[in-house]
Amino acid sequence: MLSSKVIGESHGQDSSYFLGWQEYEKNPFHETFNPSGIVQMGLAENQLCFDLIETWLEEHPQVLGLKKNEESVFRKLALFQDYYGLPAFKDAMAKFMGKIRGNKVNFDTNKMVLTAGSTSANETLMFCLANPGDAFLIPAPYYPGFDRDLKWRTGVEIVPIHCVSSNGYKITEDALEDAYERAHKLNLNVKGVLITNPSNPLGTSTTREELDLLLTFTSTKKIHMVSDEIYSGTVFDSPDFTSVLEVAKDKNMDLDEKIHVVYSLSKDLGLPGFRVGLIYSNNEKVVSAATKMSSFGLISSQTQHLLANLLSDERFTTNYLEENKKRLKERRDRLVSGLKESGIGCLKSNAGLFCWVDLRHLLKSNTFEAEHSLWTKIVCEVGLNISPGSSCHCDEPGWFRVCFANMSDQTMEVAMDRVKGFVEDNNRGTQKRTMWNTRRRSLINKWVSKLSAVTCESER
């Protein structure tokens, strides 16, 4: 007999967001060995500046060799480390986070909790701030993984704050109050608001006015404010990034115990495999409990040693952040221009590793069923894995998240050629020959049909 966690369906991974990944993994694109495979545009990875990190590693071989001043530090790193983390690493993280924020915010390492990535950080915060059955309000569209990360093991519920395309998905007071009232009508105890800033999936940074509104709202309601800022170093265009901590400081709330920040090196440095994240909080009880919980997912000593050296190199971090923004902007512009050539528009973005793409004009009807049908065709026939808006709990069918920083320039060109061919065929009313056999297409259509029938209402 197994637990309800094992046999239940609350993990959130039956979303089309994850189903697209499964199809990609069966038939991944490769320029030489599988040129007709699926191009992965559903994965928010930053691979554009790996060469800068690789060059630094080549220039600092003693770091990889676990040496310091020509003396081996292997034994020190190999032995057990407590869950507080290496002081040198926490110091380097604090300085790096401050640099990203223009040194307008200072970080106290005593208020940091190291975690194995932002997934662990967000879940740990839910355990600390809420009980099973309590709720957090999250602006929608939001990252599909939150349905797993925040809810599955904690029992916390998510209530979407409905944002709309007509005002660029801005967070408004009416939307906040509406979400709060809906939660109470469902007999849910609202414990806080969680945002991603910059937004995943929109690729936009939260404005100072929105942050001021959020802090006023959460303070008035006496609930928590959580800001996931893992994309803070990806802001490549105006307006500049503004942290919730900066606005809190301006409002004399910088010591507020209900404000918490999540950060990670997965997006800004492109190191998701290193599993480096953290929680920053003024709340001593949260820091204490989260530190104890972090023993279930620590960052290895070797990883901390390596990154402490990398991030302590001021010349490297300054150059990296500047070059990263430049390359992200160039790649974003290439995607936007390529889509524009095919008559496809995007929400204006200034950050992140993706664009929020408007394909409403390609829907056969203004329904989520039509969106799923279009998504199936794009995955199966066009060979591009992109994420449908319904998986992000978008209220309007026809929007898709398209990632651009996890591939080479050549693969991007292939993707744009496929989009162009698809739109031309669609405009002519012709059918493009599928790359997959009938059995595979039938399988994914069954999945989409199941999603439409079972989860579409909840995704709306």
Fourth-tier CATH superfamily name of the largest domain: Type I PLP-dependent aspartate aminotransferase-like (Major domain)
Strand order of the largest sheet: 4-10-9-8-7-5-6
Radius of gyration: 22 Å
Domain count: 2
DSSP helix fraction: 40-55%
Tell me the number of strands. Answer: 15
Q: Provide the low-confidence segments as ranges.
A: 430-440, 450-460
CATH architecture tag of the largest domain: 3-Layer(aba) Sandwich
First-to-last CA distance: 34 Å
Q: What overall form do the CA principal axes indicate?
A: globular
Q: Kindly state the mean pLDDT as a whole number?
A: 91
According to CATH, the fold-level topology of the largest domain is: Aspartate Aminotransferase, domain 2
Strand content: 5-15%
> So what's the CATH class of the largest domain?
Alpha Beta
Strand count, sense and closure of the main sheet?
A: 7 strands, mixed
How does the helix and strand content classify structurally?
A: alpha/beta
Number of helices: 18
Quaternary arrangement of the chains shown? single chain
